[in-house]
Design a protein that fits this description.
16% of the residues lie in helices and 28% in strands. By secondary structure, it is α/β, with parallel strands linked by helices. The protein has two domains: 3-99, Udp-n-acetylmuramoylalanyl-d-glutamate--2,6- Diaminopimelate Ligase, Chain: A, domain 1 (3-Layer(aba) Sandwich), CATH 3.40.1390.10; 108-322, UDP N-Acetylglucosamine Acyltransferase, domain 1, CATH 2.160.10.10. The strands form six sheets. A ten-stranded parallel beta sheet has the order 7-10-13-16-19-24-27-30-33-36, with no helix packed on it. β4, α2 and β5 (81-84) form a beta-alpha-beta unit. The chain is flat. The protein starts with a helix and ends with a helix. 37% of the residues are buried.
């Protein structure tokens, strides 16, 4: 499509654009790409000063820029069409949707699917090859169930939810509208519950269930466990990367984000908008306040206040961690100084 058409489609996010001063620079755009890899007829974006030098280096025909007059003038000098916006990355995310549509099969039920007679399917549902849907399952309108998915009894799945190939939904799980469960994920399997006795470990049956509220996305090979009693709940619009583990009875707030290999022990509570970077681990019953952030590989043994940023293991405030890290690099030098001082004292 022409650059002008892209501007029009993204207009709610656009503050300025080059066509107002250069009406002739209206290139045909055939796709999107990273700024370092873009070719002619592609659209890319610049976010922040780190990538500002790419304006003069990129081969892209059009750029999404921050509101920066210097970058706009540089784009003009290089013959690059541009639009500016307060949020270049978000605008680029919308631009991708103009050129790419995820695979969406037409509604229908594959002949190899096994569906219990008392399961309820909404309108325009897709059920792929070798899917197993057991008794009492309810699936909403426009849902998409890809191949080899297994859905245990009495599961509820909302409208427009997508279950990708080879994921498993255990009994009585509730999955809301507009959720995405990626391949290999397991929702509602038994929590890790064993009671110590003199004879060994006695298994505590996990009679609870898992609730995923609307808009939740679960990455590949992640696991969300059901509890012995009660619920494990994932709040609205929370997003999880691949290989995330959520143990029994966890209560996750709205709009949280968890990167790969995050692990939550039983009974953890996360407030709203919590961000957990890769390989963060949180101990039993810890409570993490609204808007808190844990940087990569943080080990959290106890509660974290709302809005706090923590790092390291055991977790400490991020500012303290940065100071300690700077000192850590100087430890060999400090050690040699200490040895010299000790030697002088001995003399």
């Amino acid at each position: 499509m022409k650059f002008q058409e892209i501007v029009e489609k993204l207009s709610p996010l656009v503050t300025e654009y080059s066509l107002t001063t250069d009406k002739h620079n209206n290139p045909e755009i055939t796709g999107v790409a990273a700024v370092s890899e873009a070719e002619a007829q592609q659209l890319s974006y610049i976010e922040g000063p780190k990538f500002a030098t790419m304006v003069s280096k990129t081969k892209a025909s059009a750029l999404i820029l921050p509101r920066d007059e210097g970058l706009q003038q540089e784009a003009n000098q290089n013959g690059i069409a541009w639009l500016s916006t307060p949020e270049p990355r978000l605008t680029f995310a919308h631009a991708i949707k103009l050129f790419y549509t995820p695979f969406q099969p037409s509604p229908g039920i594959h002949e190899t699917a096994v569906i219990a007679p008392n399961a309820t399917l909404g309108k325009d549902v897709y059920v792929g090859p070798h899917v197993v849907i057991q008794q009492g399952v309810t699936i909403g309108d426009h849902a998409c169930i890809q191949g080899n998915v297994v859905i245990y009894p009495d599961v509820i799945i909302g409208d427009r939810t997508v279950l990708h190939a080879n994921c498993t939904i255990h009994e009585r799980a509730h999955i809301g509208n507009d959720c995405v469960i990626h391949s290999g994920a397991v929702i509602g399997a038994e929590g890790f519950g064993f009671v110590p006795t003199r004879e060994g470990w006695f298994k505590m049956e996990q009679s609870g269930y898992v609730i995923l509220e609307d808009g939740v996305e679960i990455g590949c090979n992640s696991a969300i466990d059901r509890p012995a009693v009660g619920t494990t709940r994932i709040g609205r619009n929370t997003k999880m990367d691949n290989l995330v583990h959520i143990a029994h009875n966890c209560q996750i707030g709205e709009n949280c984000v968890m990167a790969s290999q995050v692990g939550l022990a039983g009974g953890v509570t996360l407030g709203k908008r919590v961000i957990l970077a890769g390989q963060v681990g949180i101990a039993n019953q810890a409570k993490i306040g609204d808007g808190a952030i844990a940087t990569a590989q943080t080990g959290i043994p106890s509660d974290v206040a709302a809005g706090e940023i923590v790092s390291s293991s055991p977790a400490v405030p991020n500012k303290l961690y940065l100071k300690a890290s700077a000192i850590y690099k100087k430890l060999p030098e400090m050690y040699q100084t200490l040895k010299r001082l000790q030697k002088k004292l001995e003399e």
